[in-house]
Amino acid sequence: MPAGLINLADSSLGATALWANDEFFAAKERMLNPAPPVAKPGSYDAHGQWMDGWETRRRRDPGNDACIVKLALRGAIRVLDLDTHFFTGNFPPQASVDATDDTDPLEKHARWTTIMAQSALGGDRRNRFTVSDPRPWRALRLNIYPDGGIARLRAWGVVQADWSAVKDDEVVDLFAIERGGAALLASDQHYGSIRNLNRPGRGVNMGDGWETRRRREPGADWVIVKLGHPGTIREVEVDTAHFRGNFPDRVSLQAALIADAAADALPTQSEQWPVLLPEQKLRADSLHRFAQEVAPLGPVSHVRMTIHPDGGVSRLRLFGTIARP
């Protein structure tokens, strides 16, 4: 998946399945579960074989089935992933997706735009489609032709935050996922994804964070993140929740204000960025706050966090004030 995108249809972030014309075999809510779909052979409920996804009954009349999903965050969608894993003889042969930016997608006169034309699907696989429309949306309507089951709907995109509502002197988390912050690249993501670093709240377990493999060579692991809006960072929080025998020994941060840079150039460029936070000792399963230690660099747009030498970090918060154009 392209760097910097988040799943706007993630139920753990607040996405909700609002309506479906039919969900006889499997509930529509399952389709938004961020975890990979699972199979339970031989497991039956009152409606038949239990399936991990949204599944409608066999249609015996003209038409098609549909489900409306409210996105977790308003944003522009870049890639749609219609996952049909474990749906083999019961996946929809075709599907399309419409989108709306109206606040109430269930309203009779809601305005819908097709962002994925009716397209063929394969069974028991991930079906990915690139979206060219750059506009932000609040909700999706998944249409399946004529019926069947979808294990997961993922809408990978970029959050469109309303920065006009933030005052010039207001201190906010510039890296927060709801404000459009995104983790771009890392030296290693063996045990945990960098996409977890700016999720809301504290990590629920050790899997809900970024964790690298055990480093057996010199050096240190790193991650590069982009702020939702350029700003001056005044306080840093590094949370090692649930990481006890595998937390980093030390952490340091560098930052820079860059208008545009190719992703493959960032690892080398970021080594020369000014120091935002000199190396600081970390503790196991703890929330670390740094304010006086943060250097006054002024407006920045990207941050490189280096963990010495390796390990796991649950959350990274970068509090500051936005920089107006």
Topology, please?
Blueprint: E1 6-7, E2 16-20, E3 44-45, E4 48-49, E5 54-55, E6 65-83, E7 94-100, E8 113-120, E9 126-130, E10 136-145, E11 149-150, E12 152-159, E13 172-173, E14 182-186, E15 210-211, E16 221-239, E17 250-256, H1 266-270, E18 275-281, E19 287-290, E20 299-308, E21 312-313, E22 315-322
Antiparallel strand pairs: 1-12, 2-6, 3-4, 5-11, 6-9, 6-10, 6-12, 7-8, 7-10, 13-22, 14-16, 15-21, 16-19, 16-20, 16-22, 17-18, 17-20
Helix segment tally: 1
Return the structural class. Answer: mainly beta
Gross morphology is globular
Number of strands: 22
Spans of at least 5 consecutive residues with low confidence: none
**How far apart are the first and last residues' alpha carbons, in Å?**
31 Å
Radius of gyration: 22 Å
Oligomer: single chain
Q: Average pLDDT, to the nearest integer? A: 96
Percentage beta strand: 35-45%
**Largest sheet descriptor:** 8 strands, antiparallel
Helix content: under 10%
Helix and strand string, N-terminal first?
EEEEEEEEEEEEEEEEEHEEEEE
